[in-house]
Every structure is written in C-alpha cells, then in structure tokens.
Amino acid sequence: MRSLILLGLVGFAAQLVDGSLGMAYGVTSTTLLLAIGTNPAAASATVHLAEIGTTLASGISHWRFNNIDWKVVAKIGVPGAVGAFAGATVLSGLSTETAAPVMSLILLTLGVYVLARFTVFGLPKGNLGKPLRKRFLAPLGLVGGFVDATGGGGWGPVGTPAILASGRLEPRKVIGSIDASEFLVAVAASVGFFVGIGSENIDFAWVAVLLLGGVVAAPLAAWLVRHVPPRVLGSAVGGVIVLTNVRTLLRSDWIDASGGVQTIAYITIAVIWAAAVAYSVREYRRDREHETVEAVEAELRRRSGEEEPAGAPN
C-alpha cells in the first residue's frame, strides 16, 4: 500500500512538472520504477500505459486554456508515434547507455541556450508567429519518439527545448503542443511494448496509480503554464534541461564523476538556476511597469487630443 501511495504522489508530481514545463513525467516515473528493480522494458511500458491517460487529460486541459497549436501537434505527433513504436519494439535488445550521453550533450547545449536566451533577452519575438516547418518537426518527432520509448522518457526533453530555441512559438503553446502530441507517442509505444514483451511483466495496479496521480495534476498544470510569464517559464525550463542532462553526463561512462563532484555540480547549477529565475522575475516586473506607464501616457495623450478645442489651430 505504501508503494502504491508513493507511486500516486510521484505520478501527481511528475505530471505537475510535465504539464507546466513540457517534460519530466516519463523520466521521473521511470527512474523510480528502475530504482525498485523493475526491468527497463517493463518500466517504460508501465509509464507509457499510464501516459495514455495522463497525456489525454493534459491535452484536454491545455486545449481548454488555449495552450495548443494543432498544426504543430500533427506535424510532430505522427512521426513521434512512428519513432516510439520502433523504439518500443527493439528496447529489449537495445542498450541506450552509449546513445544517452550523446543525446544529453545535445540537450545540454540547447538547455544552456534556452536558459541564457530567456533570462537575458526574455521571450524571443523575432521569429514569433512564423510557421514551424514539417522538415524540422518530422525528424524531431522521430528522434524524440524513439528516445522516449527506449529511455522511458525523453519526448519532452527532446521536443520542448528544440522548439523553444526556434523562437517561433510562445512557451505555453510549446508545452501544450508537446503534451498533446505525447498522447500519440504513448499509444504507439504501448502497442510496441505489447508486441515486444507482452503484458505479463506489467503491473497494471502501478499503471492505474500513476495514471490517477497524473490525471489529478493535469488541470492544475495547464492552468499554471497559462499564468506563468513566458520569460520566467523559459528560464525555468532551461534550468530543468541543464540540470537533468548534466546529471546524465556525470553518471555516464564518459565521466563517471564521484559523488562529491556530482554534489558540487548540482549545487552550482541550482544556484545559477535560482539566480536566473529571480532575474527573469525582476525583469518581467520591470517590463510590466514600463508597459503600464506607456499605456497611461498614451491614454492621456488620446484624451488630451479629444479635449482640444474645436477651433484650435492644427
């Protein structure tokens, strides 16, 4: 019973983070399942089965808050489903230990870029509103779906930073679109796991508890991403990406850092991340105050023009 309660809380927390930042449900949940001895294929299958419900609930919630670009969902979701099915069917005989550090290095680079760009410059507006091309989204979906199925998570960490870095879609719609398209990925991966390993290694009680926690958190997460300022949200997402992928790299065979080195690295990143978010909050408030002053001045000029005497010279 205690394990089920813990899984429910993990499902709630993971979906709260995933729904508001566009990543981490699969990574968080799979990590816990692996820690208690579940084999990788069964752990990933369990999480993806739960994600069928959580991503559906999350997608509906984001849709209600107008956080979704359906064109992006179609362009990235279908290739993502293909990649997820392929990844699920080969997971039993595939080791991602070598590929994980390479992917983490790429994601870390994107994470540093996103963190710096949103913290220093705020929401990128130069490309905002420009369409995201299928030639960009389709390969991204294929890679993200494959990594998600083989690693038990990765759809958000691959898709969210790449689309954020393009600067063509505001953060809340990036997150909403990634969460909505993940439903297709979860369904395809689950079908692939049933084909590859069957259902005998899957604990459906765990699936139900993870699902319940995620469904409860989904509406709250969708509301949260709708109301958090884009600049602050971008800094928060960037910090998650950096911290997650530095952790993977430090624990990989490439580096194999000691516990002390890892602790120092995590503390350093956490301090920088907190400072970045605090700076973004301060700059956001300053920008809002500036916009308010400009709006008041414009209104005063408008009223002054309306009150000008009819016979006054031009």
Structure, described:
The chain has 314 residues and is mainly α. It has one domain (2-302). Helices cover 80% and strands 0% of the residues. Helix 1 crosses helix 8 (171-197), helix 4 runs parallel beside helix 8 and helix 5 runs parallel beside helix 11 (259-306). It is globular, with a radius of gyration of 22 Å. The mean pLDDT is 79.
Brief synopsis:
With 314 residues, the protein is mostly helical. The chain has helices spanning 2-21, 25-35, 40-64, 70-90, 99-121, 134-151, 155-166, 171-197, 204-227, 230-251, 259-306.
Tell me the number of helical segments per DSSP (H or I, 4 or more residues long). 11
Domains, number: 1
| Average pLDDT, all residues | 79
Unreliably modeled segments: none
Question: What is the percentage of strand-forming residues?
Answer: under 5%
Distance between the termini: 81 Å
Instruction: Compute the number of strand runs.
Output: 0
Q: Return Rg in Å.
A: 22 Å
Strand count, sense and barrel status of the largest sheet are: none
Kindly report the oligomeric state of this protein: single chain
Given helix and strand content, the structural type is mainly alpha
Looking at the structure, what is the overall shape? globular
Percent of residues in helical segments? Answer: over 70%
The H/E string reads HHHHHHHHHHH
Main location: membrane
Organism: Streptosporangium becharense
Protein name: Probable membrane transporter protein
InterPro entries: TM_pro_TauE-like, TSUP/Inactive_protease-like
